[in-house]
Amino acid sequence: MPRRLIRALLLAACVAAAAGCASRPTLTLPPLDDWSTRRDVLASVDTWRAGGRIGIVAGGEAESGSLDWREEAGDVEVAIRGPLGAGGLRLEGGADRLVLTESNGNRTVLVQPERELRQRYGWSVPVASLSWWLRGLPDPARPSDTRIGAEGRLTLLEQAGWTIEYPEYRAAAGVLLPYRIRARSADIRLTIVVREWGFGRAAVR
Known about the structure:
By secondary structure, the protein is α+β, with helices and mostly antiparallel strands.
């Protein structure tokens, strides 16, 4: 589907949502009838939020906590509370750098986020790629192998040393979006359950 048409559909959906209910926190996405449309539409939405739970198994320890992921025009804000004794942390920034804020208020600029997170906590998440994986898409900046299932939904992704499975999708924003995500690398396992999806500026404010 042409990108210009996708943006027009998204704008129309946003206007319709605003007309129907001014306080509605998210826009309704256009139909995602096949993989090509799903990929193009979700990749075109640059302002969105996903909230839920994250479970991490690493170094013989297993913990879980809350996950709040907000993204706006390339800038990301990720809050993780609880896992692996971290107590809570926030990651903010864009493609060039991430700023880590720990539960005690200490702030650190992360030049190599994956390596530095692992040094601090014994685990790491590929933040740039996870932005795509949460939406059920491969990171376009890295080679990948994909398996597409019913109605054009991603069921399995292998990328950057990770295997990501999508065993469950649920209705959100008028379409089916990832609900349960399982990801594993050589020494880390992640389970993410997305209980809330929001699209549009109101969803991230």
